[in-house]
Design a protein that fits this description.
Elements: H1 13-24, H2 28-40, H3 44-68, H4 74-114, H5 131-149, H6 152-166, H7 168-178, H8 195-204, H9 208-211, H10 215-220, H11 228-257, H12 270-273, H13 277-284, H14 288-321, H15 341-355, H16 361-376, H17 379-386, E1 389-390, H18 400-416, H19 420-444, H20 450-473, H21 481-500, H22 508-514, E2 523-524
Antiparallel strand pairs: 1-2
Helix pairs in contact: 1-6, 1-11, 1-14, 2-8, 2-11, 3-8, 3-11, 3-17, 3-18, 4-5, 4-14, 4-15, 4-16, 4-17, 4-19, 4-20, 4-22, 5-14, 5-15, 6-14, 7-11, 7-14, 13-14, 14-15, 16-18, 17-18, 17-21, 18-21, 19-20, 20-21
Amino acid sequence: MSNLNNLKRKLSLLDLTLIGLGATFGSGWLFASSHVAAIAGPAGIISWIIGASAVFLLGLMYCELGAAMPTTGGILQYPIISHGPMLGYMMGFITLVAYSSVVAIEVVAARQYASAWFPSLTEAGSSSPTMLGWMVQFCLLCLFMLTNYFSIKSFALANNIISLFKFIVPICVVVVLFRHFNSENLTQSGFAPNGVEGIGAAISAGGIIFAYLGLTPIISAASEVKNPQRNIPLALMLSIACSAVIYLLLQIAFLGSLPTEMLANGWSDLGSKLPLPFRDIALLLGAVWLATIVVADAVVSPTGCGNIFMNSTSRIACGWAASTTLLNGFAKVDPKSGIPRRALWLAFVLSVAWTLPFPSWEKLISVVSAALVLSYAIAPISVAALRRRNFSRPFKVKALFLLGPLSFFVASLLVLWSGWNVISWLAGLQILIFIVQLALKSVSGTGSTIHKEIRSSLWLVVYYAGMMGLTWASGPGKVSELTVISILAMFSTAIYFWGATSCYPLTEKTDSLAMPSGDFKPHTV
C-alpha cells in the first residue's frame, strides 16, 4: 500500500527554480556547444532556438498539469491519470531507464573532465574508466544516495550551494570568449554546412535536448512544493528562459572565439581537436585561470545534476509504483523524513548498473534524449484529454486547440531527428511492452477492463509504429526531408486529436493518483 501523503511540502520557489537550472547545467553545457558546431556549424544557433521553443511549448503543458495536479513523479503519473494503466506500463519503463541513465551519464562526464587533472581515472587513448575511475564514479553515486536519503530539504540545500558555483563559471566563459570574438568564423565555412538535416540532427545528437532537461525534475518533485499552484509554473518558465539565454550565449561565444586556423577543414572535426571543449579553447586563448575553473566546474556541475536526477528517478519510481501492483513496494514513503527510500535504493542500483558497461557520452546522448522526448510528447495529449474533466486549473494554457497540436508536432519532430537507429528499438520496445501486457492480462484473468485500456492506449502504439516508419523513410537517399516533415505534421495532428478523445474513464484509482494529499477531487463533466 502506497503512502504518498508522507511526502513533505518543503520546496520554495527558489529551491524549485535552482533544481530546474541545476538539472539544466550538468554535462550538457560542457560538451554540447562543440558537438552542435561539429554537426550544424554556425547554424547550430538555430538548433538551440528550436530546442528552446520546443521545450517552452512542452513546459506550458506541464505548467497546467503541475499546477492542477502536483503529484509525485508527475511526468509519468499524468499519462496514467489521463489514459489509464496500460499506457502507464508503456511509459513507465522507458521513463525510469531514461532518468536513471542520466545519473550515470553525469558521473561519467565528471570523471572524464577530472581526468585532465588525474589521468589515472581514464584509460589511455580511451574514454573508458580505469578501475580507480569507476570507483570514483561509484563513490559519487553513494554521495548522491546519502544526500537524498534524509530529507528533501537537505537535498535542496546541497543543490543550492552547488548552484552558486556552477552558474558563475558559464558566465565567466561567455565574458572571456566574447573578448576574442571573430564574426568571420560564422561565415568562413558556410553558415549551415549540412543544411536543414544538420540543424535537426544537432538538436538530438548534439545534446541540445539533453541540455534542456531542467523541467522534468521540477515536475517529479511537484508534491513536495510549497504553494505548487503558483511556484511550479513560475519555476518552469524561469528555468527554461534563463537556460535558453545562457546556452545561446555559450554557443555564439564558442563559434566566434575559435582560432580561425582550426576551421581550415570545416567544422566536422572539432570533436577530435577539442575533446574537453571549453577547457581546451581557454588554453588556446591563453586563459589558464579560466581553464582551471572550467575543469573544477566540470566536476561540480555534472555531480550537481546527477544528484538532482537521483532524486527525480526515485520520485518517478515512487509515482509509478503507486499506480501498479508490479512495483507497489517501492511506493512506500518514510513517515519521518518524507523520503521514498525504497524507490531511492532502486534509483541507486539502476544508476550503478548503467556505469558498468558504459559507452561514451556521445553514444548515449541520442538514446537518452529520444527517450525523454518520447516521455515529454505525451503531455499535450494528456492536457487535452483531461480538459474533459472539470477541476480547478490555477494555470490554464490558452489557445490549446493550436498550441496542443503544435507542441506535439514539435516533439515528434525532435523524435524524427533522433534517427532510425535510435527510434527503431525505443519505439519497438514500447510496442513489445504493449503486446506483453495484453498477453499477461489475458492469461492472468485480470483483463476485465482490457477493452477500455486498449481503446485509451492504441493511439500511442500507432504513433510509435508511424514514427518508426517516418524515421526509416527520412534516411539518406530515401524520401526528401520536406516531404517527411509534411507527412509528420498531418500524422502528428491526427494522433493528437485521436489521443485527446481517448481519455480513460475516471475511476477511484486515477482519482487518488491525481492528488495524494486529498485536497484535489477531479470529477467527470
